[in-house]
Amino acid sequence: MAITDEMITRLRAGAVAGDAHAALQLGRLLCLTASDPQGPGDGEQNWPEEHWLRAAVEAHPDDVEALTMLTGRVAQQISYWESVLEMNPDVMAEYGEDVGTIRQRQIEAEHLYARIHAAGPLDHAEAGLDELAVLLGVGSAKGKPATEGAYSFYVWEDEGWSGSVRHSATIVASDADEIRWACDEWLALSEGGVGGDPTLTTYVDGAELSSIDLGQYLIEGTVSWDVVPVPELTGSRLPAGLPVPGRGLYYGFSCGAD
Fold first, then answer.
1. How much is the pLDDT for 248?
2. Which DSSP letter does residue 157 get?
């Protein structure tokens, strides 16, 4: 089903009214975005999904889908801030972050991970949960090889250079309509991307099926999706919130500089 502004507005209204399912679905979609200008608080919100995923978990503490998505996003925050700490620690204080806040997230993620197992994981989630365990440094998956052929998913990649620094944006999703919508959201926010021609790669059972240079389909900063041959996914789709085994990729939006 195509994702529209009306759908987002309807989900947001339900979430604000206390509908936990609407909060979960809105949070899942916002995982795929960089910010949410209409989110709670003033201005654009980084990690825009967090507020709604926490609301969903608070309403239904044993909802495995909500727990999985929240755990995955907290794990990604840990990875992001660890990278910032390594590259440019002076920036941390501007955002109220330091070693202590990273550690707080680590403790929370480990607790959430344990709750997922206690509640009973989603179908086909074992490989992604094992990868998440490795990223979090918890003991249950140490020594187990990554199951790289476990899932099917899409990867959008956009990158550009500023001097000697490479800036990148990546979106990982497991639904064709969602990857199209998320890419459109990023291009609108970034006013056409970060400088290069973005690519969309399809993986089926962990193997690359196709890679599309979307530069040829860009018109004034938007993609003409009606002529882009996006393959449908077969096999087990990457569960929302989980990382891709063996590839260092998180479900949802991520950005970086190196």
1. 87
2. E
